[in-house]
Write a sequence for this structure.
């Protein structure tokens, strides 16, 4: 009994991490391996705008798509794009962030340009860029990078500058470690925790960006399921009371974002405890 | 002089300085200096904004004219668009012409409506500003209130409740929130009018004096129209506010929470000030970060509220810009980028001035 | 009015366990008495005072014990009632005036806020009283100070303003938490002279928290020596300084530089306070410690009239005198 409690405690402490990660993994696995009741890209013209029932768990939309099948299938597209975009943003942002902690005019210029750049409504700028470059899927990832990389940059810069003040970095520089070595060997490991936290937050944000873009029909090729596009498909039905078309894909976004934020919070707590 | 901002005496001659320093001969010099510095930043920022908007055309793959017109266009049409885009000239030549035109207020004409872009901006920008101002008013009121409660009771039940609410709100995309509000408030409960624009079919648009619809309605004395317009603002304002509430609540929670643990608040409580007064002191400390957030949101939302404007047919700058983007209306896209960027810069400038004017340490530097 | 503190305990529950910050502190401040609490940083001096004044807000804090002030127990008191005592009956002088005063409010507003928190007086009267009080604390141009902001003042001036604020409502007890540590050495003496003079002149009681033995020696009647959230020794300043009984008090006094003597330092470090403390907390650093010191917590016992020590040793014989020989 006592040992049961002892094993349960760390899980309880990491509840957010475990629960959040489980939801994400389950959703991804379902989208890849779960046998779906209907073909997500073949509509049934005889069954349009059916409310949720035993036959269509999440109902059908105005074309006759099964909302449940599409909601699950869309996870296999939206989640990898969001995570890939966040990861790419992290790589670029962290690299520039580490560089910006070095002294010199270059880093001051970098921060100034960043200020000017972030003054734009970045989502709209991203939409413009994706559209102008021909509405391709890989440009969605580029849009995510534009929006999320500056956050990584600022975070790493702030943390890096704080750590730079620490004695051991000074010591490493004094004994003649090369600047790049100082950045990679001494700074990077010390900011890796906050990067991990930011990565899960950025993935959540990226999912919102993917959803917003596909809501506008940007970066999706129509019959393929995507949560944002599905919400758009049900937008007109909201005034007519057919709530299920938009609600279920929206719920999927909600669940994923909450899970990712739970993971971020849990990581943050674990990190803080290990530092103190 | 001592450094008043850090609040510490450093020199050894403190005893001699026990008498109050004579009145500073240049009261407000620091303030004026700061204003000058900020104003000097504007041309630089303007230059950056124009450059980014110019470069947008160059990122188009292949022949932009063909992309805009589609492959079925005739050669004459393509040549015409190429001419309008200036693609027959060199990049540097085009850039200089472009900067010159923009600085003279000439943003070109829309490919599709043929209207001067400047006129379109003047027509659509006020609606966006009205929407964002209303949304920020609602969001700041709600967000600051719940954020203060959470910060004051940090770690206790009210804090936990607010944090769950924030986490929930943050996970709902704005457009989904808008659709849900339409479903509940319009379809189910009939509390709001349908999402079909700023005025009903029977309402008459007032003469455009300021071009701010609500202001013009007041100026025209059209109270029924005003009531209708406000009623129709309910859903979009609420939608946009729901997105901003978590941000206000978070920044307030953090700053008020930190302030509550500060020496200043501890001293205020040691002097026996009432808890209301203590909260007021804490909010005074939180003032600058909250103002900064408001300005950032204001800048980002004008233009950034494009999707919400589209859902509710608000006819604002965002909706116009989004339409231009989807239609590849290059001059309109460029005008949109310049205006939104410049608008944000102006908001930041005003923010800096307001923050400086509110802080006696800067004001009387 | 006198303050009687008995067995005050404060614990903070944190994620990594409980921290026992204050572990049964007792002392008295008699009518018209100036008492100094000395101890290293981390000895629980400030936490004790904050507990008594009800200034600890952190959730998961446990406070126990009794602190009687004018016949009322401050620790058991409801927060609203305690608030009315703070500022009015107990004046408070903060450590760093610039950290304490509100930077964005005119000082006149801050005087008004403090007075109005306790009494219904009109602005004009408050202003007259504030000007009066600023004059008392040695500010030459009170008008200009009152209409200005805290950042326009020098450190010494700002601390005078804080003193004026503390005395505005004529409190019977003044609590000063390290009142001069944030100030230049040259100003420290002026400020302490001023505080002591004002308190004595009005025949009020005062509690000074400090880590500076010189402050205690020059201004206080009685001294309370704290270590790890416990009182080690309590007695009249003259007697304790001439012949400390507790080995910790002895070590503390020996660490003060004196002409013609080599400076002694105290080895070891403060024990961690995250477990229920048992035995004497000074034992690891005490040259005279015995087996009993580890197992039994020494009670604070009266060894001679007015002098209390928390030590298992026979203090008269087993603790060496301050000056060897």
């Amino acid at each position: 009994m006592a040992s049961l409690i002892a094993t349960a405690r760390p899980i309880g402490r990491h509840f957010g991490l475990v629960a959040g990660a489980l939801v994400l993994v389950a959703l991804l696995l379902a989208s890849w391996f779960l046998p779906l009741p209907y073909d997500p890209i073949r509509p049934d013209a005889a069954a349009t705008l059916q409310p949720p029932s035993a036959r269509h768990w999440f109902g059908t939309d105005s074309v006759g798509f099964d909302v449940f099948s599409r909601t699950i299938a869309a996870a296999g597209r939206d989640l990898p794009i969001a995570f890939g975009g966040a990861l790419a943003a992290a790589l670029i942002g962290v690299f520039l962030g580490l560089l910006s902690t070095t002294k010199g005019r270059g880093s001051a210029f970098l921060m100034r340009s960043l200020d000017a750049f972030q003054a734009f409504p970045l989502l709209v700028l991203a939409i413009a860029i994706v559209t102008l470059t021909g509405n391709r899927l890989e440009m969605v990832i580029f849009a995510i990078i534009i929006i999320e990389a500056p956050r990584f940059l600022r975070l790493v810069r702030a943390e890096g500058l704080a750590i730079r003040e620490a004695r051991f970095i000074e010591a490493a520089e004094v004994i003649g470690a090369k600047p790049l070595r100082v950045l990679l060997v001494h700074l990077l490991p010390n900011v890796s925790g906050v990067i991990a936290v930011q990565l899960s937050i950025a993935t959540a944000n990226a999912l919102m960006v993917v959803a917003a873009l596909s809501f506008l029909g940007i970066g999706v090729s129509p019959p393929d399921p995507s949560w944002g596009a599905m919400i758009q498909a049900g937008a007109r039905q909201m005034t007519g009371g057919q709530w299920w078309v938009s609600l279920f894909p929206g719920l999927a976004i909600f669940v994923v974002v909450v899970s990712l934020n739970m993971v971020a919070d849990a990581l943050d707590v674990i990190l803080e405890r290990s530092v103190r | 002089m001592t450094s008043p901002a850090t609040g510490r005496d450093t020199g050894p001659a403190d005893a001699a300085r026990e008498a109050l320093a004579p009145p500073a001969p240049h009261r407000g010099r620091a303030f004026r200096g700061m204003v000058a510095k900020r104003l000097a930043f504007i041309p630089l920022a303007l230059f950056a904004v124009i450059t980014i908007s110019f470069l947008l055309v160059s990122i188009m793959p292949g022949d932009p004219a063909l992309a805009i017109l589609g492959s079925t266009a005739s050669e004459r049409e393509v040549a015409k668009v190429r001419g309008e885009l200036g693609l027959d000239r060199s990049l540097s030549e085009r850039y200089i012409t472009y900067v010159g035109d923009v600085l003279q207020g000439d943003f070109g004409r829309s490919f599709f409506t043929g209207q001067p872009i400047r006129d379109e901006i003047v027509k659509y920008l006020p609606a966006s500003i009205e929407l964002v101002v209303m949304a920020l008013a609602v969001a700041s009121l709600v967000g600051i209130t719940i954020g203060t409660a959470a910060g004051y009771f940090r770690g206790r039940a009210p804090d936990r409740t607010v944090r769950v609410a924030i986490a929930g709100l943050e996970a709902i995309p704005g457009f989904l929130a808008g659709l849900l509000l339409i479903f509940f408030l319009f379809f189910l409960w009939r509390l709001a009018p349908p999402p079909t624009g700023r005025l009903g079919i029977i309402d008459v648009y007032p003469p455009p004096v300021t071009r701010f619809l609500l202001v013009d309605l007041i100026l025209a004395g059209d109270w029924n129209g005003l009531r209708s317009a406000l009623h129709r603002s309910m859903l979009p304002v609420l939608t946009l506010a729901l997105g901003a509430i978590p941000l206000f609540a978070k920044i307030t929670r953090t700053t008020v929470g930190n302030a509550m643990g500060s020496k200043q608040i501890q001293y205020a409580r040691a002097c026996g000030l009432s808890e209301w007064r203590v909260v007021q002191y804490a909010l005074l400390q939180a003032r600058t970060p909250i103002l900064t957030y408001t300005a950032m949101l204001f800048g980002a939302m004008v233009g950034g509220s494009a999707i919400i404007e589209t859902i509710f047919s608000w006819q604002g700058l965002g909706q116009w810009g989004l339409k231009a983007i989807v239609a590849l209306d290059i001059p309109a896209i460029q005008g949109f980028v310049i205006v939104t960027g410049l608008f944000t810069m102006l908001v930041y400038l005003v923010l800096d001035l307001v923050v400086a004017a509110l802080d006696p340490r800067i004001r009387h530097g | 009015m006198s303050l009687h503190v008995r067995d005050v305990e404060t614990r903070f529950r944190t994620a990594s366990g409980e921290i026992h910050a204050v572990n049964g502190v007792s002392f008295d401040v008699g009518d018209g008495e100036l008492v100094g609490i000395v101890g290293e940083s981390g000895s629980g001096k400030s936490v004790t005072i904050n507990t008594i004044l009800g200034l600890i807000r952190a959730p998961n804090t446990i406070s126990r014990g009794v602190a009687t002030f004018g016949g009322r127990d401050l620790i058991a008191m409801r927060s609203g009632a305690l608030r009315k005592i703070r500022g009015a009956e107990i004046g408070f002088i903060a450590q760093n005036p610039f950290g304490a005063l509100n930077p964005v409010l005119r000082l006149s507003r801050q005087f008004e806020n403090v007075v109005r928190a306790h009494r219904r007086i009109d602005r004009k009267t408050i202003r007259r009283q504030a000007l009066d009080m600023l004059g008392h604390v040695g500010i030459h141009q009170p008008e200009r100070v009152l209409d200005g902001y805290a950042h326009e003042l020098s450190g010494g001036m700002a601390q005078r303003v804080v003193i004026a604020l503390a005395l505005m409502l004529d409190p019977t007890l003044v609590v000063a938490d390290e009142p001069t540590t944030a100030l230049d050495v040259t100003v420290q003496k002026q400020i302490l002279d001023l505080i002591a003079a004002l308190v004595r002149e009005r025949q009020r009681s005062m509690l000074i928290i400090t880590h500076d033995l010189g402050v205690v020696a020059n201004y206080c009647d009685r001294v309370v020596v704290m270590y790890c959230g416990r009182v080690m020794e309590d007695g009249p300043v003259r007697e304790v300084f001439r012949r400390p009984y507790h080995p910790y008090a002895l070590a503390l006094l020996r660490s003060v530089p004196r002409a013609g003597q080599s400076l002694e330092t105290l080895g070891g470090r403060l024990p961690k306070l995250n477990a229920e403390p048992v035995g004497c907390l000074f034992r690891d650093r005490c040259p005279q410690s015995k087996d009993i010191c580890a197992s039994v917590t020494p009670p604070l016992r009266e060894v001679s009239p007015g002098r209390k020590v928390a030590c298992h040793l026979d203090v008269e014989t087993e603790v060496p005198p301050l000056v060897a020989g």
User: Anything to note?
Assistant: Chain A is about 75% helix and 0% strand. The two ends of chain A are 31 Å apart (CA to CA). Residues 1-8 of chain A have pLDDT under 50 and may be disordered. The CA atoms of residues 175 and 273 of chain A lie 31 Å apart.
